[in-house]
Amino acid sequence: MNEETSRTAAASLLLDDQLCFALYAAQRAVTAVYRPLLDELGLTYPQYLTMLVLWERGEIPVKELGAALRLDYGTLSPLLKRLEAAGLVRRERSAADERSVRLVLTDQGEALRSRAERVPARLLPATGLEASEIARLRGELHELTRRVAVATDSATPE
Question: How far is CA 83 from CA 50, 73, 78, 80, 92, in A?
């Protein structure tokens, strides 16, 4: 892309030229495909993401879960209350540090994993992409997230 084209693209106020809108529209479309799959599991999308972290990492401090999901405590707390009420997780205070709360999968939460393992394969056909294309796109999105985080952190005054 030459400098003029780059400058024009950066200055555009057309909705379809906005990176944020392309990401937002794609996220909504993908989440809509997940919805019926997750309904079968009795989970919302944020609950599914939470369970993914727990299935991957096991028992985890709530603070670490929030960092993994990029959610603050105020958003995470009601989500965890609903998962606990559903019998999927249990919150426990750390014996070493009463201020620290750990999240633990219940037997029911662990059992849900086998049903959830079918979700990614059922999502793939709806994307119209090959597995290799999804892997490439996911890598590009992770890199975008990393770059924006670095740029945002370096722009934040201390």
Answer: 9, 15, 9, 5, 14
What residue type is 60 in one-letter code?
I
The 10s digit of each residue's pLDDT in 90-102 is: 999 877 777 889 9
**What angle in degrees, to the nearest 10, is found between the helix axes of 107-116 and 45-57?**
110
Supply φ then ψ for residue 2, to 5 degrees.
Answer: -80, 170
Look at residue 41 and tell me if it is in a domain.
yes
Q: What is the pLDDT of residue 95?
A: 75
Do 133 and 122 belong to one domain?
Answer: no
Residue range of the domain that includes 153: 128-158
Q: What is the pTM of this model?
A: 0.84
- What whole-number distance in Å separates Cα of residue 112 and Cα of residue 83? 12
For 46, the enclosing helix (H) or strand (E) is: helix 45-57
Q: Residue 49: how many CB atoms within 10 A of its CB?
A: 17
Residues 6+ apart with CB under 8 A from 84: 90, 91
pLDDT digits (tens, 9 = 90+) for 62-92: 999 999 999 998 999 999 999 999 999 999 9
101 and 26: one domain? yes
